[in-house]
Design goal:
Apple domain-containing protein; six-stranded antiparallel β-sheet; mainly beta; two-stranded antiparallel sheet; 8% helix
């Protein structure tokens, strides 16, 4: 799932990733919106991913994955939204838009577009 944040930085988006590898915590900020959390992450160069806490009351800005062999993996997998500039859809107007596509671990993406034809009558 890619989510575009065009109102802040064009070309930055987030994809959903489930992992059990812990990440460094950059900061924890009170919020209830995933989009708000992503906007804060986009503005912070140290932030590489975001997640909301389980109560959805705090945004956790995350840094790099912790890969030292002495580190244990998390007990349960968790979902983060990883910041990227690859595969983002550029907005076509000044209005706020979002786009989604799904990804697999092999980085293959699939996009679905639904178009509803308009009807007009003349008389």
């Amino acid at each position: 799932l890619f989510t575009s944040i065009p109102q802040l930085v064009s070309g930055t988006c987030y994809f959903s990733q489930t992992s059990s590898i812990p990440r460094n915590i950059v900061s924890v900020i009170p919020t209830i919106s995933q989009v708000g959390c992503q906007i804060l992450c986009t503005a912070d160069t140290n932030c590489l991913a975001t997640m909301l806490n389980s109560a959805h009351t705090a945004c956790v800005l995350l840094g790099a994955e912790i890969t030292e062999p002495s580190s244990m993996s998390c007990a349960a997998p968790f979902t983060t939204y990883v910041k990227t500039t690859n595969g983002c859809v550029e907005p076509t107007s000044s209005s706020t838009t979002s786009s989604t596509s799904t990804t697999t671990p092999t980085s293959t993406s699939t996009s679905t577009t639904t178009t509803t034809p308009s009807t007009s009558t003349s008389g």
